[in-house]
Write a structure and sequence with these properties.
Layout (H helix, E strand, L loop, with lengths): L1 E10 L6 H18 E5 L8 H10 L7 E6 L6 H9 L4 E5 L13 H14 L4 E5 L5 H21 L2 E5 L13 H8 L2 E5 L1 H8 L4 H12 L2 E2 L6 H20 L3 E4 L4 H6 L4 H9 L4 E2 L4 H13 L6 E9 L4 E6 L14 E4 L9 E2 L1 E2 L3 E11 L2 E11 L9 E7 L3 H11 L5 E5 L3 H11 L2 E5 L1
Parallel strand pairs: 1-2, 1-3, 3-4, 4-5, 6-7, 6-9, 8-13, 9-10, 15-18, 17-20
Antiparallel strand pairs: 11-12, 11-19, 12-18, 13-14, 16-17, 16-19, 17-18
Helix pairs in contact: 2-3, 5-12, 5-14, 7-9, 8-9
Protein name: L-fucose isomerase C-terminal domain-containing protein
Keywords: Carbohydrate metabolism, Isomerase
GO biological process, one term: fucose metabolic process
């Protein structure tokens, strides 16, 4: 079931076969109730603009994710224009099939959907169209996918990212123009002082931070709770959590090197890993667009923890590439043959970091990318292989769906950023639709 609130508005005219239309409405309601956590709908087909206005007045103030406009019969553009006076959310236009062919055109639902889509296009309002009857599997799959995308669009418009420290020297791709980011994606930023966090976190009493250690022990293999770096991980994580709650943050982009090693004396990777495992996606090197990419993947993949890594190796014979990072990776991503193993940062030799290869399975690779021309999306697909850990730190070897060598050269020539988000499951169609809804260039390798 989708954790979302849908406003279902069935529209029809009495000059058509309203009894057949009512049958479609009832079946649609039944399916929607079984697949959406919250459904707001009238008790019958709305057949006049005045009736529609009365219904919309009755739900004024209700928070919704998606407007689902079902053209159960043909109806003119007045209905949608009235809805747009009340709601700014994206719209799904749904037309159903004719109940019979031959003789009278009983519903003319498809023309109604066509007319409504034209109104939305001319109002420059984001929308999608679906066609089919409520008992059709293809329609159900498309509608669920579309509702999920609409929910994520709304979540993006409400997304508030905590940026903990500036990006490291030379990591220009990690930054973002706040005004452009808000305009294009709806995302806002909240800046946090990393040095202040270091200074204040070590003052916290043990009873406040010990819970972070106990949480890590539930999934991390080989964790030494007496290690000073484990204490600092717990102190820092606890301090940041207080800030997350106070500022109502939804994701983080965190500067990691050299500050964590030089000033705190601990690796940042453990904090990034535990936060992401527990639903607060956190990118390293203060990569704002990397954090957004991770957030989108987690939302579309039903809460699955995402990964963020560099593309560091290619094996042409296996048509595979390796994504790696120093020691950040959500615990549940670990290959079950080893589990989420504690280690040290591979270059700095400071703990505590994660040290494991990722599990096998179908994966989607994604990046919200930015160029001087604006935003674009990158969508890729592959299979994570069940192989030995390619490199120390966290890493995963992925057999790509496209030619690995050709893809590599195209990515480099297109100048994509060197951080790629990855999630288990296939949400490529969702991402392609998200790009269409956002009116962004979307490059696809599937």
């Amino acid at each position: 079931m989708q954790n979302t609130t849908v406003l279902y508005v069935p529209i029809g005219r009495k000059t058509f076969d309203i009894e057949a239309a009512e049958m479609y409405r009832q079946k649609s309601m039944e399916w929607l109730k079984g697949n959406c956590s919250t459904l707001i709908a009238p008790e019958q087909i709305i057949t006049s603009v005045e009736e529609l206005q009365g219904f919309l007045d009755s739900i004024k103030g209700d928070k919704i994710d998606t407007v689902l406009y079902q053209s159960v019969t043909f109806a003119d553009g007045e209905f949608m224009v009235k809805i747009l006076e009340y709601f700014k959310q994206p719209v799904i236009v749904w037309s159903v099939r004719e109940p019979s062919v031959g003789g009278r055109l009983r519903l003319n639902s498809l023309t109604g959907g066509n007319s409504t889509s034209n109104v939305l296009r001319n109002h420059q309002h984001p929308f999608a169209f679906v066609f089919g009857n409520p008992d059709e599997k293809a329609l159900q799959d498309r509608l669920l996918r579309q509702i999920n995308v609409m929910r994520v669009l709304k979540a993006l418009n409400e997304l508030k990212i905590g940026v903990v420290g500036d990006y490291p020297p030379g990591f220009f791709f990690s930054q973002a123009n706040e005004e452009e980011l808000k305009s294009a994606l709806g995302v806002t930023l909240h800046k946090m002082d990393l040095q202040e966090a270091f200074k204040e976190c070590v003052k916290l009493p043990e009873h406040e931070w010990i819970g972070e250690v106990e949480r890590a022990e539930k999934q991390v293999i080989g964790l030494n709770r007496n290690d000073e770096t484990v204490t600092k991980f717990a102190q820092f994580s606890t301090y940041i959590k207080k800030h997350i709650q106070r500022e109502e943050l939804d994701a983080l982009a965190m500067r990691c090197w050299p500050d964590f090693f030089n000033d705190l004396g601990a690796a940042p990777c453990s904090t990034l890993s535990q936060f992401t495992e527990d639903g607060m996606v956190t990118s390293c090197e203060s990569d704002i667009h990397g954090s957004i990419s991770m957030f989108i993947l987690r939302e579309l993949a039903g809460g699955n923890a995402p990964y963020l890594g560099d593309l560091v190796h290619i094996d042409e014979e296996k048509n595979s590439v390796v994504f790696w990072h120093c020691g950040a990776g959500a615990y549940s991503l670990a290959n079950p043959s080893t589990g989420a193993t504690a280690g040290v940062h591979p270059n700095r030799k400071i703990g505590f970091a994660m040290d494991f290869g990722l599990k096998a399975g179908e994966v989607t690779i994604f990046r919200v990318s930015h160029t001087p021309d604006g935003y674009r999306l990158l969508v890729m697909k592959g299979d994570a292989l069940d192989v030995e850990q390619p490199f120390t730190g966290t890493s995963v070897e992925v057999e790509l769906a496209t030619n690995a060598s050709d893809t590599l050269y195209e990515l480099m020539h297109a100048g994509y950023e060197p951080h790629f988000a990855l999630v288990y499951g296939d949400v490529t169609e969702h991402l392609i639709e998200l790009g269409r809804m956002l009116n962004l260039e979307t490059k696809v390798y599937i």
